[in-house]
Design the sequence.
């Protein structure tokens, strides 16, 4: 049984383990305003807004792709769909602006776009007079595709929201509503999905249900249900496990809980690793970043996962827990082969160690993909180093999309270590790269393309180190740097 609030009204419903929020809305609750487009979290047609009990007060509205959000994760939340925005004939500013700017064409994607604009509008209530920055708008709408190519009027509508009469939904005027849905609690009372609160409970559940999938953000796992029609008798949800939800600061770094979302992790990266934080802006969409977790990106062991190459370049470590207790493992020893890891039976990732940057250390991260927003990497390069005078030290070079696993390239590092940052040095590094790697060859890019592109990233890195470049060149490089 799942208890939550939908557009201000309490719901109590049953749902099978593989049920998505989209299925629950359309097939069980009869709310058909939310549309299914891709069923893989790419198009944004199914976007909804969710406020969670763990959030600050008042709880912010976070967009999510309903097609790949597990229904059981609504427990103790407030879900808002496009049907819940208008108050009688009075439209929400997001809806009114879409009408005024003629921003809806075929209309299929419109509900998802409206929900992204709703969340954007609500997040700006504290700063209504501040101009809407292009970067903020792009982040808010980056996960919504319009097949009719109506992006200009949609952008116009985003800017026009602030000029519309403020007509909040009827449920928003109920001052006691938030405390009511928060009181429901997040613990599950079902027998087919489990939400352990602590690591000891998780270990016990894994012993009882060794075949049950572990669910956190579900942004990749749930494709098994939507694309491959997989069914799971039991699932174990990690989003409430306290030990997996923490960010623990120590003198030399941080332990990032495996169930910490990208959105929750982002402020720390912005403060200490801005190049890494910039990468997150291209990792999926806002809908994905609100739910996806760094632990899931690692455990998934995809050769084109975005965070593992960067973490390899930063020499991250993992804390693992299983039946035999806890252990630590360098991330470089975790990936064994395609989708194969060093996890033992019953083990899970508890946290990821991120070292504090040294004062003179630098990081560059470059992602190549077919489109800038909400796309999977064809190739990702991460470059970490220190520089004393002209010479490079502590060089670490890692790539994703070049082999069956994300990897560091020791021969390239050796070609650069202790050497001056000259064109000759980087020519040697590119030669070492071509000799060391035989890249993947698939629909996203041929082996030769990937090898050439990886060498070009080394050249781009060299250009950023050239003291003779002017500010215009630096800005041009930075425009593509992440």
Sequence:
């Amino acid at each position: 049984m799942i208890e939550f609030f939908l557009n201000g009204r309490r719901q109590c419903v049953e749902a099978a383990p593989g049920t998505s929020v989209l299925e629950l809305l359309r097939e069980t609750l009869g709310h058909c305003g939310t549309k299914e487009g891709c069923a893989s979290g790419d198009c944004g047609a199914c976007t909804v807004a969710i406020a969670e009990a763990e959030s600050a007060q008042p709880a912010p509205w976070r967009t999510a792709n309903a097609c790949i959000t597990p229904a059981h994760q609504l427990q103790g939340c407030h879900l808002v769909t496009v049907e819940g925005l208008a108050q009688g004939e009075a439209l929400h500013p997001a809806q009114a602006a879409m009408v005024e700017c003629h921003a809806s064409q075929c209309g299929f994607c419109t509900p998802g776009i409206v929900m992204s604009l709703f969340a954007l509008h609500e997040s700006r209530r504290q700063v209504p007079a501040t101009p809407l920055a292009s970067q903020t708008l792009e982040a808010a709408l980056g996960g919504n595709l319009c097949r009719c190519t109506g992006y200009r009027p949609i952008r116009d509508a985003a800017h026009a929201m602030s000029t519309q009469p403020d007509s909040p939904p009827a449920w928003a005027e109920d001052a006691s509503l938030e405390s009511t849905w928060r009181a429901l609690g997040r613990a599950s009372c079902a027998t087919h999905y489990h939400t352990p609160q602590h690591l000891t409970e998780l270990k016990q559940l894994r012993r009882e249900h060794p075949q049950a999938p572990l669910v956190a953000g579900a942004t990749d796992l749930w494709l098994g249900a939507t694309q491959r029609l997989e069914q799971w008798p039991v699932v174990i949800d990690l989003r409430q496990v306290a030990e997996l939800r923490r960010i623990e600061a120590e003198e030399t770094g941080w332990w990032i809980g495996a169930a910490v979302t990208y959105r929750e992790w982002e402020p720390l990266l912005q403060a200490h690793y801005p190049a890494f934080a910039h990468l997150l802006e291209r990792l999926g969409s806002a809908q994905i970043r609100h739910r996806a977790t760094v632990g899931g990106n690692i455990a998934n062991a995809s050769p084109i996962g975005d965070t593992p190459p960067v973490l390899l370049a930063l020499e991250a470590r993992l804390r693992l827990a299983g039946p035999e207790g806890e252990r630590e493992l360098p991330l470089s020893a975790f990936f064994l082969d395609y989708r194969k890891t060093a996890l033992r039976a019953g083990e899970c990732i508890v946290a990821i160690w991120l070292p504090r940057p040294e004062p003179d250390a630098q990081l560059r991260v470059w992602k190549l993909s077919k489109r800038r927003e909400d796309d999977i990497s064809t190739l990702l390069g991460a470059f970490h180093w220190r520089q004393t005078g002209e010479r490079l030290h502590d060089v670490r070079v890692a790539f994703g999309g070049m082999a069956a696993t994300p990897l560091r390239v020791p021969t390239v590092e050796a070609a650069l270590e202790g050497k001056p940052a000259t064109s000759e040095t980087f020519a040697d590094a590119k030669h070492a790269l071509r000799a060391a790697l035989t890249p993947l060859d698939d629909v996203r890019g041929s082996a030769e393309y990937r090898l050439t592109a990886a060498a070009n990233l080394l050249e781009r890195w060299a250009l950023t180190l050239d003291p003779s470049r002017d500010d215009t060149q630096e800005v041009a490089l930075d425009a593509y740097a992440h």
Q: What stands out?
A: Residues 471-482 have pLDDT under 50 and may be disordered.
